[in-house]
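Researcher: I'm comparing several assemblies side by side, and this is the next one on my list. It has 480 residues spread over two chains. Same procedure as the others: predict the full complex and return the structure.
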Amino acid sequence: MRTTVPVIVAFLSGIILVVSFFFQETSFIGGLSQELKVWLTIVGGFTLLLGVVSITRVNFSGVVRRRPGWGYKILTLISIFAMAIPSILPTSWSPLFGRNAGSIYDWLFVNLDSPMMATMFATLAFYIASAAYRAFRARSAESTILLITATVVMLWRVPMGEALLNMLPGDIPSFLNTYVMGGANMAVQRGIIIGAALGAASMSLRIILGIERTYMGKG
Amino acid sequence: MVGLAVVIPFIFPADFPISTTPEAQMVFDSVEALPDSSIVMLVFDYYPSTIAECEPMARTALHHFWRKDCRVITLSNIPLGGPSMAENVTREIAPEYDKQYGIDYVNLGYKANYVAVLAGMGNSIESIFPTDNSGTPLSEIPLMDSVVNYEQVSFIFEVADNATADYWVSIVNAQYGVPIACGVTAVSAPKYYAFVASGQFVGLLGGMKGAAEYEQLVGKRGKAVVGMGAQSLVHLLIISLVLIGNIGYFVTGKARKGMSR
């Protein structure tokens, strides 16, 4: 029963969404499919809630048991609830609630969350610079081709580099855009995109037909 | 060195010409070709971490849309900050064009499960987003009186730092035929050349350079154009480090071979 019901739900949901593609949106099947999509957004909302519950449990137990880094776990818990609680309270109670400009959530987002995330991402520049010196080596013919292509494309993607390339004979920027990005790169990307789409389609079929059951925690 | 390469161009700015790629020109031309007062969607599908690359695209697109008096629907498939960034950018630029919330633009906010959201809006936007970002029912928003689904949307500009752009192609463009232009981070831009060539994207902005090209085309030189100096120096620094590393590798490699003989 614990396995059969989820498989039936997955089969019916999947089949309705696939079949509805061949029907008018105003038909019964079209309406049913639209209803399913609305449910999917609601289920998606609950998965976010599940994430909050999970992160709270994990961090709270870490604080209670004084695990290493428990101080950071307190900060995590404070951060989650400092942003979440004022954002879900109605604005009719106070302009500080909700997610509008001037709310607590907005202030925390603009002045703390956003700069912190941008800073974390910006540190990548330092790692890339370090990796450039230590790891990007022309060890084989393939890695040499990759290295030269990457270097020239990097030059092309910035105005100073493009000015340098323009000093060389021939229209190198145009060649890079047409033959490297729009040629070799595009051919490879198409292969990857088509392969991934075929994989996703076959995986979807396996789930709809009940062959793939790992989403229930079973092999 | 990286820190200096970032800071120096802001202290001593150098003005290098920014060439326009055909893909950025296509974005500009597509928006220019829209009839005035069209209804368009501007999608904030990026996290605050990539704000430096993506926000200039969104800002410039908004300037471009409002210069053409388009009515703009913003939304996001990113829970972490997407709706707030849409809110802040629109509210900051709106006074410049005398645009009013609810009449000229609306922020639908975020709904979980983007595949269902994109597919569901094809039938009814209101069934997926019953309220806007601040909880006002869509039935009380004048702009949404004339918008039921994608049929009323003339153009979509997707600004993304993740794979949601793929779903705008496979669901919204392929199934509903809405023209979509895309602005993505430099690292993900190579993937989307295939969609531009197939006509599924009507144009592409790649990274901060793409944003700078678009700023220049629209005539609103902003943070992307300013950032080109820092990005140029950092790229040149990284290329120099790669060269030095490889020279060292070959010299020490030869030295090692010589010693083993």
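Model: For your comparison table: The CA atoms of residues 7 and 24 of chain A lie 27 Å apart.
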